[in-house]
Amino acid sequence: MMATKPIAEILRQGKPDESVEIRGWVRTKRELKGFSFMEVNDGSFLANLQVVLNPELPDYENLLKRLSTGASVAVQGVLVASPGKGQRLELKASSVVIYGESDPETYPLQKKRHSFEFLRTIAHLRSRTNTLGAVFRVRNACAAAIHQFFQERGFLWVHTPIITASDCEGAGELFRVTNFNLEAIPQTDKDEIDYSQDFFGRPAYLTVSGQLEAEVMAMSFENVYTFGPTFRAENSNTSRHLAEFWMVEPEMAFCDLKGDQDLAEEFLKYIFKYVLEKCPEDLEFFNQRIDKSVLETADNIINNQFERISYSEAINLLIKADRQFEYPVEWGLDLQSEHERYLAEELFKKPVIVRDYPSKIKAFYMRLNEDEKTVAAMDVLVPKIGEIIGGAQREERLDVLSDRIEAQGLPKDDLWWYLDLRRYGTVPHAGFGLGFERTVQFMTGMANIRDVIPFPRTPLSAEF
RNA sequence: UCCCCUGUAGCUCAGUGGUAGAGCGGUCGGCUGUUAACCGAUUGGUCGUAGGUUCGAAUCCCACCGGGGGAGCCA
C-alpha cells in the first residue's frame, strides 16, 4: 500500500526511490516530444511537485489531453532525483487518476500572473494561486500562533457573543439583527418600531467588539482572550477595512498599562517569529514578489525593543518634526495616520507604543490618569500600517466610570452588568485589541485587506 | 460618505472623431529534460449600460452601474 503524502512533506524530506501517492490540482503541463511534465499543487506548499509522464503510461495520449490546468488528480509513482534544474526531486508517474477535468477554454486561471482585482471576482478559485495560497497558509499559521501564545501563558479562550444588545461601544456603525418581516414591521401606537415584538424583544446587533464581555470573563479567570469575527457597518471603502473581520482581544485582571504594553510587545514578537519559522518559503515569496521589505519588517519587529512614549511626547516630537503635515498637530487632537506613520516609519524606524492619550478623544472605559486630563490608553504603531493594536487599562473605579459614562451621554442603564463588575470585587485590569487581517496584511505585505481573507465582505460585495 | 482614476478579446492593456489592435492565454503543429519553456500558425469583440452631439462615436457630452486608489472613520 502506497502512502499518500502532502507535497510539502515530499519536497522537504522526501528521498529518491520512495514510492508515494500524491493528490492535488494540476497547475501547468509542458508537453515535449518524448514525454511530458506536469506540476501538481495540493495547497500544502508554495512550490509544485513536478511529475514526469512517460508514454508508457496507459492511455497516454488521451491522458495528456485531459490533464489541463485546474484538473484534479491522484498520482502514484516513485520519487527520483531530478536531472533538471529548479527542483531536487520529481515524481515519475506509474499511474495517474483524473478525478475532475478542467476545460482549458473556460478555466479562468492562467499560468501567467493575474491582477488581485481580477482574482477577487473569482474568489472561489483564487486560493489555487501561488500568492493567495501563501496568504492563507500564513493566515493559518498566524491564527495558530495567537492561540499558542495565549495558551502557553494560561489565558482562557472565551467565546464572546456575535449578537449583542449593547450599542455603546462607540466603535463604528452596527449591523441590525432582526427576524421582523421587513415588509411589515410591527409598530407601536406612536408609530415607532415595536422592538418588543422582535426576536430578542429589543434592538439587537452584530458585535463590534467582545471587549466588555471579555472583561466579565477576566473577572473570574484572570487572563482571557477572544478571537473571533467582528462586524462594522461603516461605509468604508479602503484597502484596510472590512465589514466582517477577525479580532483578537486579550483581557487581564490585576494588570496595569505597563503590563498591557509588555504583553502587546511580547505578543507581536511571538507571532512574527512563529510564522517565520512555520512558513519560511511563503514569507520569502512575499518578500520577493509582493513587498521587498517583508523579511526586514519581521526582523524589525522580532529584534527591536519597541519605543515607548507618551502622547504628550509624541505631540512634541511631531511639532519639532522637520516636515509639514496635512493635518494640524496640537495637544488634544487625535493622531492622524500620517502622524502615526511618521513616528513609526521615519523617526524611530520601528514599532512605537504611544500611551496616555487625552481622555476626550478616547473611549469611556479607559482609566482616567492622576492628571485627570489623560487616560491610560496605548496604541502600538508600526511602519506602513500605523495603528495595529489599540488597548488600555480599564476604569475599575465605580464612581469614576459612572461619571465618564454620563459625561459621554451613554445609556448607563444598559451597562448595569458592566458597572456591577466594579461593584463586586473590582480589580485593576487591562487589555487590547488586534485586527487579525491587518496583522496578516502587515506580515505578508499584501496591499489590500480583501486579499488576506478568503471571502471578503465590503460595501456592495458579498457574492461568495 | 467625500475626492481622484478607470471600464475595449478569457487576462493585461494600446487605440482620444473616419473599416477593432498587441502581448499573454486557448487551439493546432514542431521541438530528446522542460520549469513564466521555446518556435510557427490559428482562434478570439454588443468597446460597462442607456441617452445625446455628429455625415460618422471605443473616442466628445450627460446619467446610471461596476472596479481601483486615497481621505474620513476605524481594527
Write a structural description.
The protein has helices at residues 7-13, 60-66, 116-121, 130-152, 211-221, 257-278, 280-289, 294-303, 311-320, 337-347, 398-407, 416-423, 436-444; strands at 3-4, 19-31, 36-41, 49-53, 72-81, 89-100, 156-157, 163-164, 176-177, 204-206, 223-231, 244-253, 307-310, 352-358, 374-382, 386-393, 429-435. The model has no long low-confidence stretch (mean pLDDT 92). Helix 4 (130-152) packs across helix 6 (257-278) and helix 4 packs across helix 7. Strands 7-11-12-17-16-15-14-13 form an 8-stranded mixed sheet. The chain is of the alpha+beta class and 464 residues long. It starts with a strand and ends in a 20-residue tail after the last helix. The chain contains 13 helices and 17 strands. The radius of gyration is 27 Å and the shape is globular. 31% of the residues lie in helices and 24% in strands. It binds one RNA strand of 75 nucleotides through residues 28, 30-37, 39, 48, 50, 52, 68, 82-87, 104-115, 117-118, 120-121, 171-173, 209, 230, 232, 234-242, 245-247, 326, 336-337, 387-390, 433-439, 448, 460.
Mass-distribution shape: globular
Query: Main beta sheet, described?
Result: 8 strands, mixed
Any idea what the radius of gyration is? 27 Å
Low-confidence stretches: none
Order of helices and strands: EHEEEHEEHHEEEEHEEHHHEHHEEEHHEH
How far apart are the termini? 39 Å
Biggest sheet: strand arrangement: 7-11-12-17-16-15-14-13
Q: Report the count of strand segments.
A: 17
Which range does the strand content fall in?
Answer: 15-25%
Q: How many distinct helices?
A: 13
Mean model confidence by pLDDT:
92
Tell me the structural class: alpha+beta
